[in-house]
Amino acid sequence: MGAVEGFKGASLLAKVSLVLLLIAALFSWISFTTTGWAKIAVAVPGTPAVYTYTYYGLWRSCQGNNLLIATCGQLDGTANDWWAATQALVTFGFLGINFALFFLVLKMFVGACAKNGEIAMATAIICIATGVLYLIGVIVFGAEFNEHFIEPYGSIHKFGFGFALSIIAMVLEIVAGVLLIVDNKKGGTSPSA
């Protein structure tokens, strides 16, 4: 069974789930590896047009001014409990997207796995379970970052593109899981007639 035959033989819901998981994987890889989760800007005293920026990602933060990003520091192994919890929960979500994508590709494109309903159901469960963990991680980051970094200092802040991409990836992962459950309940091993 080749890739083309596997794709043609898959149900519409499986194809949609594959596309959703591909997009979710792309977005989660970007958000997982960048410093684009949040940005804090603090005005430099005496120079109202110059700001010091700090960009935060899951694993590092970078600091600089309007013209230059000067230094970055690692955040892995942090002693900050909520940050470590966010890292752990988002890592489970990130891994879940990648494993689910692998299992769905296996089901769709490997002949011996095409009719195996257990693979489809396991993929759906992985999507939903790790999507919920991803959701909790995103909520923890949003709430705690605001409480610990923004409110005490009154600085200019924004949640960044990495934070937004992680939310989109998490939603796509959960939707793909639900579609796979519906597909499995319908017996979605062949294309709709």
Automatic annotation (TrEMBL):
Pfam families: PMP22_Claudin (PF00822)
Protein name, entry field: Uncharacterized protein
Membrane-traversing stretches: 12-32, 82-106, 118-141, 161-182
Species of the source: Dreissena polymorpha (Zebra mussel)
Subcellular locations according to the entry: Membrane
Keywords: Membrane, Transmembrane, Transmembrane helix
Keyword Heme attributed: no
Keyword Transmembrane: yes
Membrane topology: Multi-pass membrane protein
One GO location term (cellular component): membrane
